[in-house]
Records
---
Amino acid sequence: MEIKLEDLKVLYSEEQLNTRIKEIAQELDNFYKGEEVTAICVLKGAVMFATELVKDLNMPVKMEFIRLSSYGSGTSTSGKVNAVDIKLPDLNGKNVLIIEDIVDTGLTAKFLTDFIHMNFNVKSFKFCSLLDKKITRKVDIEPDYYGFEVDNRFVVGFGLDYDGYYRNLRYIGYKS
Ligand code: 5GP
């Protein structure tokens, strides 16, 4: 399936994304109450969301970046999570916030949740995703915070790609 720019319809506009991201930041501010947070951005998809979200946080924030992949070049998950690059500092005793683009089957979220808990004794662990595709979930896991729910369609933009393209769009779109 090829996705052309002219075929894309806006699902969530730049304005809707900005408004919702500010709301999530407020929810996070309320939870952390000024305590330091280590925000872990899951590359590459979460890069736009993470960089916007952290700008609106009012506590001390350290940013870390890890790289995982489960999609190949197509539009459906491979069902296997590849840890392409996970190098993290000592997170014992830290407030850890994972920032993800979308939870689909939930395999990535489960992998990361288990990975952090197996390797560190964290103070708190929260999982925040811009999008939540609840309908395609294969494992029992829910993000603690999410921006918007999406139904079973392949979305691109604002960090999410199709074959490496469209991450740079200001909106979340889908093929009409
Ligand atoms: P999961 O492990 O939950 O099945 O999938 C998580 C990853 O699959 C996401 O981080 C994202 O990279 C990719 N993914 C899932 N659904 C979509 C989608 O609709 N569009 C794009 N571009 N990527 C998706």
Note: The CA atoms of residues 81 and 103 lie 13 Å apart.
---
Amino acid sequence: MALTEQIQTIEAQAAFRHYSVPGGKKMAVAMTSCGAFGWVSDAQGYRYCPNDPLTQVAWPAMPPAFKQLARDAAKAAGWPSFEPDSCLINRYTSGAGMGLHQDKDEQDLKAPIVSVSIGATAKFMLGGQHRTDPVKTIDLHDGDVMVWGGAARLVFHGVRPLPKSQTALRYNLTFRKAA
Ligand code: MD6
Ligand code: FE
């Protein structure tokens, strides 16, 4: 099954939603998850949960094809034993972007993150170890896979808002070892 069809199956069980960040604002990007843990955010902060807070039931299982894709990509990049237990699915519509951030809610920051881009091209911002470090912009296209590990694991990064005039959606899958 194609990745977008898998996403449709997942969102039928765990709908895309806009989380609030601890400061109170709602994120522009809509999110859902699959796997044993899902990333969530609310007034209490960011964390991984075994249940979907919208339904109180476990997140949909990670499709075997997702897991295999993540394992293969990690292996090719030098992490032969990556076993993701969480896949965060981001959905970008016109005007939606994601501010500079680090991913550090996972227990084992030595495990890599595998990122898969689907749909509309995004301008991805790649900074350094400090928020104020200079940022490079790279285009992420449909089908692009990035593996983040080692020294790159904690770099600041974000996504420039999709042009307002654009109607095509972008999805991004990030495979993580959360627990
Ligand atoms: C995105 N990606 O591409 C957002 N985080 O939509 C991320 O925030 C990200 O691509 C950690 C590792 C890889 C990523
Ligand atoms: Fe991130």
Note: The helical segments are 3-13, 64-76.
---
Amino acid sequence: MIVALNNKSNLTKQEFITYQQQLQQINTTHKLILCPTTLYLEDVTISNVELGAQNVSCTNPGAYTGETAAIQLKSLEVSYCIVGHSERRKYQQETNEQIREKIIQLLKEKITPILCIGESQDERKQQLEQQVITKQLEEATTNLSEEDKKKIIIAYEPIWSIGTGVIPTNEEIESMVNTIKQHFPSNKVLYGGSANVENIDIIKQVSNIDGYLLGGLSLHPEQLQIFLEKLKN
Ligand code: 13P
């Protein structure tokens, strides 16, 4: 399984140093992808994780103050990058078109995009969830070659489940992942949204997911070790 750790904008430099020492103790056969804030990408020295970024510029390097270009991430040995996270869609008004441009930049540098998609609570109430994620998928990958599309990892993260402790039923997750796999049959699909040591015994029974994208849990290495052990069973 793939387990990606999205630290979001948490941890001071000192806290990150301690965190990294704890993370280093984790012993697992699952693939761990650590996505710290861009600031700390260069400070990751542990060998049991691969490196992921949380964001990338839509553009080539140049006069774009505050942006981080894909080629710069590559020069820090970044192998993965989250794009289209609902927090960026909401707070930075990121559009599917911009997400598509980010995916193109990443693929040019052979960095694997982790494309986040998911519906809001209102959209689910109106039974629009399948339609919403299909549109997100289609617009974020318009005109990409079939070969390039296959390189993307897709993370299904229902917005109403992120950081809330509320999780979809297994049937709901399975049905959304089936929809994703109808469009992208050979891509890895992750689930994200309040996954933790208490609910993983249930979620792991969903047969069509290939891993998890963890927010809150990513910040607690001891809990993470327990989570990873539960995944094995
Ligand atoms: P939580 O695990 O804190 O719900 O966050 C999920 C997430 O947004 C990962 O990208």
Note: The two ends are 12 Å apart (CA to CA).
---
Amino acid sequence: MRLFFALWPDDAVRAELARWSRELHALCGGRATHPENLHVTLAFLGSVEEAHVAEVERAAGGVAMQAASLVLDRPGYWKHNRIAWAGPSLVPPELAALVSGLRGALAKSRIAFDTKPFVSHVTLLRDGREPRAIPELAPIEWRLAGFALVQSVTLPRGSRYEVRRSWSA
Ligand code: ATP
Ligand code: MG
């Protein structure tokens, strides 16, 4: 199964992200992320055998997390992959610590993951064209109270993400 760790929004934050996604979609076109799939990827494991999932969960269970506030105040667009996203001007130190703690725990348990540096963002749409100007959008305040292990399920209409398990700060 395909797995990744993520920050998973509550319904209020999800609704605000979906609003940003609609605003950017009006400018960029492309494929908007389904609101129920919106997230921040912390570590991407990719394919994991069923028999190894318990080890993944054990590693995550040992990670210390402190609650934090993530303010998404920056809509943006990356030309290289045609993605429009929501990001923070400042990554809270608690989030940076969570990512390094989590990735460190995975490495220590010899669980493979993509080691590309963490870039804090929510993908709002894919295959969009570059907007003439990035709109101003009301900042989204996200109280980070935990993180989740998410399974990516491939369906004919695209991927659907399901939280398998979550851990609280
Ligand atoms: P699909 O690959 O089916 O088109 P998807 O990219 O939305 O759909 P996944 O590939 O399962 O779904 O990715 C889940 C999440 O992990 C997404 O946020 C995606 O951007 C991120 N991700 C995917 N591959 C990697 C990777 N190699 N390194 C880091 N993050 C990744
Ligand atoms: Mg993918």
Note: The mean pLDDT is 97.
